[in-house]
Amino acid sequence: MARPSVPFGRLNTATKIAVGVGICALVSVAYFVVFFGDVSSAIASATRQEENLKGELNQAKESQRVYTRDLAELAERQQKQRDLNKILPETADYPSFLSAVQGVANVSGVELLGWAPMDSIKQQFFAKVPMRLSVTGKFHQIAKFFWGIGQLDRIINMENITLADPKVVGDEVRLRVACLATAFHTLAASQNTGTGAKPAAAGAKK
Questions:
Q1: How far apart are CA 76 and CA 79, in angstroms?
Q2: Which domain holds residue 67?
Q3: Are both 112 and 185 inside the same structural domain?
Q4: Does pTM top 0.70 for this prediction?
């Protein structure tokens, strides 16, 4: 037979307190379980997101490092190519060739009397760019001229040198020099035959 229920109002104070504490404890536990579960899930999600972001950041830093390295290597290769083009251009470039010779002539004090560009001569990996020159000057000026040609960035060989018409001017001997100045240029992979670009017309000072 069921026991008769006792109204809450008739319970003594100690019992009421115990019942109230029990109810609060149950509510607290339920709230803690629900709230803690949500917070724990949110923390776990935030931790995963943080790890993903760190991974993406590290990947971005590595990509930036590789890009910076490749950019530096590209700049270095381009600079090396520019330096190489000064020594061994990709074309005959007769105007630049003549300009370089004229510049050395001006510095050394010799007079460039005439020049006659010739067809380039292809070799296996490069082409010769010959030009006949005629200059006049004092002996030490001519020596300085040949030395200056050797100091140019572009490779230029001086060949078939002949000295003529020596004239005494004061304490110096003035000479007329004829020679063959030969520069060079690289060949493209497709260039296998032919004599290269047509040179500029010969010239002479009057």
A1: 5
A2: 11-86
A3: yes
A4: no
